[in-house]
């Protein structure tokens, strides 16, 4: 049987990726190469002394004027230029504040999807599909993780949630400032998200009030949207209508005394 070749990418600004690297090295399905991309020269020097044969540490000076997602995408693309993607079956992208259960790769490979994941902190991407759809580079945009999944879906590729989820070592959103949420809101508009979906985020994180503000500013300014935005908007609107219709049916059944 032909061995599955996987290149793992770990972008980090200041978070120490040691536990993330260890969790990848302990996978039941082994990766061929791990590249840690850090925006800290100090972290780069300290990690260089700890690497194994398949681990490479590189430093990429971040442009702090760019939004977080764009800085991550730029760093990932610099790392990708150091490998021949055609030699790899999969790209595993993991943030430095996440670890992977020992069977993460093995179980998620069984999904046989072009993209397995739910959030940007752990993504398993089929190499051939990534080359075909993205020409081997991440889109250098704010919501680079959402962009990948939505563009795959728009073009008819298989996108599935983790069969085995990663472990996030921090509370979601902990490190983010109001500026992050504001920029995220602008990109939610550019991605094609409908307003209800954006407002709903307030239920999960109060700082998403700035995302709503960013979304509103983008609408008022008429900022150019991504090429699949109309498709995303229509798809989400159909789902919202279907959910409303189902809720109406359930309510009518309850009024009639029917158990559901």
Describe the model.
The protein is an alpha/beta fold. It folds into two domains: 6-168, Spore Coat Polysaccharide Biosynthesis Protein SpsA, Chain A, CATH 3.90.550; 176-260, no CATH class. 44% of the residues lie in helices and 14% in strands. The longest helix is centred in the C-terminal third of the chain and has 27 residues, at 229-255. The N and C termini lie far apart (49 Å).
Q: How much helix is in the residues?
A: 40-55%
- Name the CATH architecture of the largest domain: Alpha-Beta Complex
Overall geometry comes to globular
Class inferred from helices and paired strands? alpha/beta
Mean pLDDT: 88
Cα Rg: 20 Å
**Ends apart, CA distance between termini:** 49 Å
Instruction: Identify low-pLDDT runs.
Output: 249-254
Quantity of strands, as a count: 9
Largest sheet entry: 7 strands, mixed
Structural descriptors:
single chain; 260 residues; alpha/beta; Spore Coat Polysaccharide Biosynthesis Protein SpsA, Chain A; 2 domains; seven-stranded mixed β-sheet; two-stranded antiparallel sheet; 10 helices; 44% helix; 14% strand; globular
